[in-house]
Write a structure and sequence with these properties.
Elements: H1 4-47, H2 53-57, H3 70-101, H4 106-118, H5 123-137, H6 144-168, H7 172-180, H8 185-213, H9 217-221, H10 255-263, H11 268-302
């Protein structure tokens, strides 16, 4: 039997390690926040004078004072729309199938290993895959659709893994209670598993889309233009059914490509344009993440364990 003094020493030691871990975690968080604030402040100092309505509504130009990001931010929005539309349903569906429906055998084990490996594959490999598959095989050309599908392939493993981990965190007692009340497997998944795991799934989606919006290697590989002075056709048409899909096959550019183009030029004025574009890209990422976090908060608020 341990005496009371030994027990007190062990408790004090564990409390010390808990406080030490909390301090290390806080310091790590502050380092990340400090780097983000420093980066944003540096971009703001250089790029704020260039921010204006004209900068948002002008096409790129050979003259830095007249250059803008209209084609770049429109292209980014369209590409990310295609990416989200393709990756989110496929990723969530694959995660649900592998975790709830697939039998645990050698085939699913191989699939799981490959999904984990694909999450660490360099992004340029996905660009080469998209080039051969979407550009040459399916003949989509160097278009918004090709870029969106390339980025969807890039983030698909992340969404699948996040979906599976979120589903695994749901206690089996919830499934058993649903089955005991006569619910089918699909009813259990759609009414209980998915709502309870929505927070974790949205976390994976946030991480995936945040990576996709800043990627350049796959976009360059599939033929993004470094200079484009026109917009894709409008998704909304004037005739019934008022939806136009021609924009999917239109040439495009995105914010990271436009920034790369300006940074590679020797004139300092173009570098200021790149800093302003970097600020806007960070804001777009934060807004996208904020929307996803808000949706996640709303879902978690409705759930009562």
């Amino acid at each position: 039997m341990e005496n009371i003094e030994d027990i007190k020493r062990k408790i004090a030691k564990r409390k010390f390690y808990n406080k030490l871990f909390a301090i290390i975690g806080l310091m790590s968080t502050m380092v990340g926040l400090a780097l983000l604030v420093t980066l944003f402040a540096d971009l703001a100092i250089d790029g704020t004078p260039r921010l204006s309505f004209k900068f948002f509504t002008s096409f790129p130009s050979r003259f830095p004072d007249e250059a803008g990001i209209l084609s770049a931010w429109v292209g980014t929005c369209l590409v990310m729309f295609v990416t989200a539309s393709a990756a989110i349903p496929l990723g969530i569906g694959a995660g649900i199938y592998l975790e709830e429906y697939a039998r645990k055998n050698w085939l699913t084990h191989i699939i799981e290993i490959n999904i984990n490996n694909l999450a660490g594959v360099p992004s340029i490999i996905y660009g080469l895959l998209a080039l051969s598959l979407f550009v040459y095989f399916f003949k989509f050309g160097e278009s918004v659709l090709t870029a969106g599908l390339a980025l969807a392939l890039l983030i698909l493993p992340m969404i699948i893994m996040a979906t599976r981990e979120a589903i695994r965190a749901i206690p089996n007692s919830i499934r058993e209670a649903s089955y005991a009340l006569g619910a089918t497997k699909w009813q259990t998944v759609i009414n209980h598993i998915i709502p309870y795991s929505t927070g974790g799934i949205l976390t994976g989606i946030i991480i995936g889309l945040s990576r996709a919006i800043g990627e350049t290697a796959p976009i360059i590989t599939v033929g993004a233009l470094t200079f484009i002075a026109f917009l894709p056709p409008s998704p909304v048409g004037g005739d019934f059914p008022f939806i136009n899909f021609k924009w999917l096959l239109a040439p495009f550019t995105v914010m990271p490509i436009q920034m790369f183009n300006w940074v590679s030029r020797p004139q300092q004025a173009f570098h200021l344009n790149a800093a302003a574009a970097g600020m806007i890209l960070l804001v777009m990422t934060m807004v996208m993440n904020a929307i996803a976090i808000y949706i996640r908060y709303k879902f978690r608020k409705k759930i009562k364990w």
